[in-house]
Amino acid sequence: MRQPLIMGNWKMNGSREEGVQLAKALADGLNAGSQEVAVCVPFVYVSDIRGALASSPIALGAQNVADQASGAYTGEISAAMLADCGVKYALVGHSERRSYYGDTSQSVANRFCQAQKQNVIPVLCVGETLEEREQDRTFQVVDEQLDAVIDAAGIEAFANAVIAYEPVWAIGTGKTASDEQAQEVHQYIRKRIADRNPAIAEKVQILYGGSVKPDNAKGLFAMPDIDGGLVGGASLDAKGFLQICHSV
């Protein structure tokens, strides 16, 4: 039985004070349960949020990680630095990084590998744009994004990684894939892993990340291959995020 994982992605939002208050509200409101909870926070607030979550089971995540170990890479944050600050998870290949900042499948694979070298768990984000879905290329896009990491790290790497399916057309648009649409892609991803290693496919957590909200979370999480959510905007509201966590 896979443990559900609910992960908030705060993106580039909030002040230090707001972040600390949000973290404390989440820590205070989270009931003991079978789900794991994590928040991916802006780099500059990692230490502050770590302190606010010190007595909480909520894990700390980063929104990105460098594709190099160290060196003259101005503005980058290495996996070793994240590990040094108590970060457990790091997003790699989020659609906004791919779309706005030029991340390629190869650079995402490098980020994935760098995270694992420092025992930071990579959360590999994959998903298609609206144009790609309308062209019936969803599975082709997912294959290309997933295979780049499999080729670089090996299928065994997914024994200590998370996958997040995020249909780009459903991020920040108010649109959400139906429960059945999301399940179809999650099932496809799991089968893609199972073709190489059935045992890892059975254990790997696959999250849905496309406008998850309190009113649609329960239906999504009831699907057999959806193991939780990567929550964007709704994770900035403590009450709403906690409702999502409790809906598992």
From TrEMBL:
Subunit structure: Homodimer.
Family per similarity comment: Belongs to the triosephosphate isomerase family.
UniProt xrefs under InterPro entries: Aldolase_TIM, TIM_sf, TrioseP_Isoase_bac/euk, Triosephosphate_isomerase, Triosephosphate_isomerase_AS
A GO biological process held by the record: glycolytic process
GO molecular function, one term: triose-phosphate isomerase activity
One GO CC annotation: cytosol
Reaction(s) the record says it catalyses: D-glyceraldehyde 3-phosphate = dihydroxyacetone phosphate
UniProt-listed Pfam families: TIM
Binding positions for substrate per the UniProt entry: 9-11, 172, 211, 232-233
The keyword Isomerase is annotated on this UniProt entry: yes
Pathway: Carbohydrate biosynthesis; gluconeogenesis; Carbohydrate metabolism; erythritol degradation; Carbohydrate degradation; glycolysis; D-glyceraldehyde 3-phosphate from glycerone phosphate: step 1/1
UniProt EC number: 5.3.1.1
Function field: Involved in the gluconeogenesis. Catalyzes stereospecifically the conversion of dihydroxyacetone phosphate (DHAP) to D-glyceraldehyde-3-phosphate (G3P).
Alphabetical list of NCBIfam families matching this protein: tim (TIGR00419)
Highest taxon of source: Bacteria
Name of the protein in question: Triosephosphate isomerase
Lineage of source species: Bacteria, Pseudomonadati, Pseudomonadota, Gammaproteobacteria, Methylococcales
